[in-house]
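Hi R.,

Here's the chain you asked about this morning:
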Amino acid sequence: MTTLAPGSEPAGLIRRLAAILYDTLVLIAVLLVAAVPFDLIARGAPTSEAGRYLFQFYLLVVAFLFFGWFWVHGGQTLGMRAWRLRVVNRAGGAVSWSQALLRFLAALLSWVPFGAGYLWVLADRDRCTWHDRLSGTRMIVIPKDVGALSS
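And here is the predicted structure, written out as tokens:
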């Protein structure tokens, strides 16, 4: 069990999913822009299976950098900010790059069994998802009075 900062509480499923929806829209735009240089370099080159896998890996790296940057620098993506959520380490501090990578990869795995890793928040005593547990991070709700002061 992790102690939370006074006034903060663990995030529930609905807030998490709402933030994911917001972030998905932003991520789609980022991936479309990120695809342009790859497409310009590959233009005219024959399409191969290896090239397709390289492109998919490139987009996965871009997605990690998108989420990782926000998690490491302030603990909030744009969707998380809209829903007053923040990712913190177990001590309540900033997330490291290694924790961000673990969280990102584990979050992908959390979707595989029909989202069971996310639904786990409903059964977990600390309201943690699989990727919270595996990465040593927590997602908390930022109290309204704190959010107003930091804006």
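One quick note: The chain has seven helices and three strands.

Cheers,
M.
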